[in-house]
Amino acid sequence: GNSVTQMEGPVTLSEEAFLTINCTYTATGYPSLFWYVQYPGEGLQLLLKATKADDKGSNKGFEATYRKETTSFHLEKGSVQVSDSAVYFCALSGPGSARQLTFGSGTQLTVLP
Amino acid sequence: ETGVTQTPRHLVMGMTNKKSLKCEQHLGHNAMYWYKQSAKKPLELMFVYNFKEQTENNSVPSRFSPECPNSSHLFLHLHTLQPEDSALYLCASSQDSTGGAKNIQYFGAGTRLSVL
Predict the structure, then answer these.
(1) Which residues on B lie below 8 Å from A55 (Cβ)?
(2) In terms of Cα–Cα distance, which of B72, B63, B116 is closest to B91?
(3) For residues B108 and B1, what is the distance between their CA atoms, to the nearest angstrom?
(4) A residues 5..64 contacting B (CB < 8 A)
(5) Is the peptide bond before B8 cis (omega within 30 degrees of 0)?
(6) CA within 20 to 30 Å of A91's CA: A49, B40, B74, B104, which one?
């Protein structure tokens, strides 16, 4: 079945540091890939998505590229802010019977001023 | 504001109580979902409804009983819960449940449930 593995946290960075959160997946066929973010006390919000190989999703300074050859979808941001502190979830949605979202376990990011 | 509203935001209940969680979406979507989020565990999909019909039940204990009277409302009825059921319960909706890029799910803020 489908699965998502993302780097364990917590991750603590200083403001303006570079961020990478690794995400790899296992799926049959060609899934769509997502990053969701959960701010404290809130539900999950879609951050960005990519639907086919080599697509780059981007939003709010975050980027992730769908790499079919390495089955990866790493999240990056060049300069993080305190307001980026949240839990980040990598997820995939496969075609056919595996169409529901499969989430990774989440990575807690804390950005210090 | 994601267009998905969950009430109550917090709930404390005893193991013999009966309570219900409510979810309402104002996005015109046709699919709705219940998830359980426990500390240090991946989100667990519990139920899926598509056009008011239940299409998935991921081996959820019968003490959790969902109800979907229309495409905009989803309930989770709770009875005889256990302390290990304490978690954040998230509701989500999407255009439909066919998957892929059309299946972007929009989440509510969740109900934080504590079972004593």
Answers:
(1) none
(2) B72
(3) 9
(4) 31-32, 34, 36, 41-46, 49, 51
(5) yes
(6) B74
Contact B99 A34 (CB under 8 A): no
Per residue in A74-84, pLDDT (tens digit) is: 999 999 999 99
* DSSP conformation letters of B30-71: SEEEEEEE-TTS--EEEEEEETTEEEEE-S--TTEEEEEEET
Enumerate residues 6+ apart whose C-beta is below 8 A from A92. A2, A4, A25, A27, A31, A32, A33, A34, A101, A102
pLDDT averaged per 10 residues, chain B (length 116): 91 92 96 91 90 89 96 96 94 82 84 94
Which residue stretches of chain A have pLDDT < 50?
none
Give the pLDDT of residue A99. 65
Of B4, B98, B107, the CB nearest to A99: B98
A29, A95 Cβ separation under 8 angstroms? yes
pLDDT for residue B102: 65
Please, what sign has the CA dihedral across residues A110, A81, A19, B37?
positive
**Which pair of structure tokens corresponds to residue B6?**
């969950």
CA distance linking residue A81 with residue A71, whole number of Å: 28
Residue-level pLDDT at B28? 94
Of A94, A107, A78, which Cα lies nearest the Cα of A25? Answer: A94
* Residue A46 distance to chain B (closest CA, Å): 7
